[in-house]
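wait is this the right file?? whatever heres the structure
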């Protein structure tokens, strides 16, 4: 791995819990161990780098993990383990992400630009240009939830290119627009490339990949199958698609089911041990390899479950709140109850009617 990368992804995994109900999700959040919930590993340890000014294509069959990886790189979702080092602002254009359905097109433009640190004055200056690029007419005044996927894509792309990010991530956004819009986007992407910007381009269209990308990463059911020159990787991927298409319906189903089963059965501890062993081999004099790998795996990660200390603290706060409520209801002073705790069960007065109390003493 080099040091002058724009994006580095190292040993990145992503686990999704396959909850059946909302209450299962809530229980798992508070429980000490929630491993009885089925796991699904959308990414099983991806390592790659993107160089400054490079356009990297992401290809792979449906459900292979392309969107998960691009969402992690753009900070939309956290990784489960691994290092994600992104040197610059990212802007992601995806068919179904980034825009708030309740807000109008104009409000979305303002929100996204404000989130990127622009001032209202700067936003006013470029508003007309964004609206003209999106070319969605009066729909710009309507809530985004009423847009077609092509319109969402147009608006998303228009916003993303105008806020001028260092890194542009395009996830299938060109596949839903019409030809005129597609050409406009391609021109803009070329302009970005000539300005030396870094682009990650996710697409099922190998023609688009070949036209736009300098290198390609092929993601296959959570693994990085191959990364290399566009020509080489696309050619190998085409061979795979040809082979897959030639399978019988039953064999296709088996191939996909086996891959998904492996994603469910993925053992993160075994993977960490494998990475540790490999690094130890590469760095025989390093006595702290296990510690370094543990740090790389978990230090940059935001836990989606409540950490132990937070659980204990939240529990103590909840007990204190209930205790103070009971003291208040009992009518005794806090010091009195602390002195003689049984007082909490003997209120000083009882309620006999609306706003009327009767002393029990
Ligand atoms: N929130 C989630 N909960 C559970 N599983 C998820 C979640 N998001 C994604 N997945 C699963 O993770 C895997 C990877 O999904 P992802 O959307 O990254 O694939 P993709 O390569 O972008 O697919 P496509 O080409 O169809 O867009 C899929 O099996 C998907 O079902």
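ok assuming it is, sequence goes like this
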């Amino acid at each position: 791995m080099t040091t002058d990368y724009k994006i580095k992804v190292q040993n990145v995994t992503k686990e999704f819990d396959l909850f059946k109900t909302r209450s299962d999700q809530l229980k798992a959040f508070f429980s000490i161990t929630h491993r009885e919930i089925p796991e699904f590993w959308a990414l099983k340890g991806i390592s790659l780098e993107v160089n400054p000014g490079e356009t990297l294509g992401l290809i792979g069959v449906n459900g292979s993990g392309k969107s998960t990886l691009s969402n992690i790189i753009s900070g939309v979702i956290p990784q489960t383990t691994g290092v994600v080092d992104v040197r610059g602002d990212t802007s992601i254009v995806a068919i179904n992400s980034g825009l708030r359905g309740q807000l109008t097109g104009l409000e979305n433009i303002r929100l996204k630009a404000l989130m990127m640190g622009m001032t209202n004055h700067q936003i006013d200056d470029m508003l007309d240009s964004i609206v003209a690029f999106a070319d969605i007419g009066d729909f710009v005044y309507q809530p985004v939830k009423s847009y077609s996927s092509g319109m969402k894509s147009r608006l998303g792309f228009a916003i993303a290119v105008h806020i001028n990010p260092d890194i542009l991530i395009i996830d299938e956004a060109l596949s839903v627009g019409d030809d005129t819009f597609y050409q406009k986007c391609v021109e803009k992407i070329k302009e970005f490339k000539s300005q030396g910007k870094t682009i990650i381009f996710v697409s099922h269209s190998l023609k688009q990949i070949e036209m736009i990308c300098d290198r390609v990463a092929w993601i296959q059911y959570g693994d990085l199958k191959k990364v290399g020159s566009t020509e080489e990787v696309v050619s190998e991927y085409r061979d795979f698609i040809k082979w897959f298409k030639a399978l019988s319906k039953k064999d296709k189903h088996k191939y996909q089911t086996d891959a998904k089963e492996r994603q469910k059965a993925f053992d993160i501890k075994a993977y960490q041990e494998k990475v540790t062993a490999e690094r130890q081999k590469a760095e025989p004099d390093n006595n702290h390899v296990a510690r370094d790998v543990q740090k790389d795996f978990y230090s940059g990660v935001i836990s989606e479950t409540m950490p132990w200390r937070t659980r204990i603290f939240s529990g103590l706060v909840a007990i204190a709140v209930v205790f103070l409520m009971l003291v208040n209801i009992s009518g005794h002073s806090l010091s009195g109850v602390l002195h003689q705790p049984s007082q909490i069960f003997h209120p000083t007065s009882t309620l006999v009617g609306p706003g009327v109390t009767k002393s029990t003493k």
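The chain is about 45% helix and 20% strand. so i think its the right one actually
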